[in-house]
């Protein structure tokens, strides 16, 4: 089990409950861990990896043209990365006091296994409240299908929809007449994907994302980017904010996590960088559980259209 979770200290209660194995994220991770089908190397995949696809994932994250092209790889991704990514969103929601929103209508572009949804759900359980959640996740990788079905089963109380589409096609299909009802739009670890794999389309993405999404969001809505703390990626978030100001009254707040190497990005530090979940020992022993939280976050508040 992990070191004492700092929220316990903050609230003076032991929230590391016996329910940890029924935490929604652990239900998903157990499903994914049980779905891995390897006999040394992957059975249906040309790559020769024997270690839960960690090497495959690192190749993808450090610029190999290879995408998430193996089911074992995506299951391993969820087991290793989702505690960290979900915690990053959980810390952000807690620190920004997003419980003033009566409901969360979330759009996530490049949703993968929806770490953000698990982070929002964890945040709600930590502050001891509930909110109606609707969640639309857009992803073009069909390999997520079983994971997405499982997420819908885990959260019957939420209204979750998945759209199997390329993000650019999804944006192109939004017409001038469409009004969007999302109050949260989340780009989580997708800008780095663009930076690595389709840099030539980043200008197009910024333009379309701003005009097809931000311009159409209702008053008092939020656009979050949560991604690696790297200048290339930070600068995409900065350009989205600049572009958003053309047709909207917006303001931007930047956050990062403590204990990260010094750099001149700026932004406010969150107080904690630990995982907000209990990771079962069997999962901790089997996977390379990523921690601590280390992302750079941009939060754009849209007050209203100009
Ligand atoms: C690094 S993963 C991040 C997943 C998830 N947002 C998270 O935080 O764990 C990137 C995801 O973006 C998806 N993706 C990449 N390019 C895409 C595109 N052009 N259209 C739709 N999805 C895309 C991939 O399939 C993958 O699920
Ligand atoms: Zn494989
Ligand atoms: Zn592999």
Report on the structure:
Mean pLDDT is 90; it is low at 1-5 and 11-16. α2 runs antiparallel to α4 (71-96) and α4 runs parallel beside α5 (115-126). The protein is of the alpha/beta class. β3 (104-109), α5 (115-126) and β4 (133-139) form a beta-alpha-beta unit. Helices cover 39% and strands 18% of the residues. It has helices at residues 6-11, 24-35, 54-61, 71-96, 115-126, 145-154, 167-172, 191-197, 202-213, 231-244, 281-286; strands at residues 38-39, 41-42, 104-109, 133-139, 159-164, 184-188, 221-227, 248-256, 268-269, 296-305. The chain is globular. The longest helix is centred in the first third of the chain and has 26 residues, at 71-96. The protein has an 8-stranded mixed sheet with strand order 5-4-3-6-7-10-8-9, sandwiched between helices. The chain has a single domain (6-12, 84-305), classed as Vaccinia Virus protein VP39 (Rossmann fold). The protein is built from 11 helices and 10 strands. The relative contact order is 0.16. The site of one zinc ion (ZN) has 8 residues, from α4.
Structural class: alpha/beta
The whole-number mean of residue pLDDT values reads 90
Radius of gyration: 19 Å
By CATH reckoning, the class would read Alpha Beta
Major beta sheet, specifics? Answer: 8 strands, mixed
Low-confidence stretches: 1-5, 11-16
**Measured distance between first and last alpha carbons:** 50 Å
Each distinct ligand: S-adenosylmethionine, zinc ion
CATH superfamily: Vaccinia Virus protein VP39
User: What is the total number of structural domains?
Assistant: 1
Q: H/E order of the elements?
A: HHEEHHEHEHEHEHHEHEEHE
CATH topology: Rossmann fold
Helix content: 25-40%
CATH architecture: 3-Layer(aba) Sandwich
Overall 3D form? globular
Please, how many helices? 11
The count of DSSP E runs of length 2 or more, i.e. the number of strands, is: 10
């Amino acid at each position: 089990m992990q070191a004492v979770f700092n929220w316990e200290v903050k609230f003076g209660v032991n929230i590391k409950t016996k329910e940890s194995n029924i935490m929604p994220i652990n239900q998903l991770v157990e499903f994914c861990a049980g779905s891995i089908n390897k006999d040394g190397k992957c059975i249906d995949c040309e790559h020769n990896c024997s270690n839960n696809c960690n090497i495959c994932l690192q190749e993808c994250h450090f610029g190999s043209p290879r995408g998430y092209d193996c089911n074992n790889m995506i299951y391993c991704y969820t087991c290793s990365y989702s505690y960290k990514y979900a915690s990053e969103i959980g810390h952000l929601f807690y620190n920004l006091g997003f419980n003033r929103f009566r409901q969360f209508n979330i759009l996530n572009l490049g949703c993968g296994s929806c770490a953000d949804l698990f982070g929002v759900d964890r945040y709600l359980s930590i502050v001891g409240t509930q909110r109606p959640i609707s969640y639309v996740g857009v992803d073009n990788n069909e390999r997520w299908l079983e994971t997405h079905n499982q997420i819908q089963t885990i959260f019957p109380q939420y209204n979750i929809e998945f759209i199997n589409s390329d993000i650019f096609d999804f944006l192109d299909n939004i017409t001038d007449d469409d009004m969007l009802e999302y109050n949260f739009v989340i780009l989580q670890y997708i800008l780095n994907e663009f930076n690595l794999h389709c840099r030539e389309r980043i200008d197009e993405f910024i333009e379309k994302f701003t005009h097809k999404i931000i311009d159409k969001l209702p008053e008092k809505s939020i656009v979050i980017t949560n991604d690696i703390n790297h200048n290339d990626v930070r600068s995409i978030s900065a350009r989205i904010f600049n572009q958003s100001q053309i047709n909207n009254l917006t303001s931007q707040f930047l956050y990062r996590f403590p204990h990260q190497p010094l750099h001149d990005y700026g932004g406010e530090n969150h107080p904690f960088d630990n995982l907000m979940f209990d990771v079962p020992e069997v999962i901790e022993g089997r996977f390379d559980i990523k921690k601590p939280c280390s992302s750079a976050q941009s939060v754009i508040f849209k007050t209203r259209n100009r």
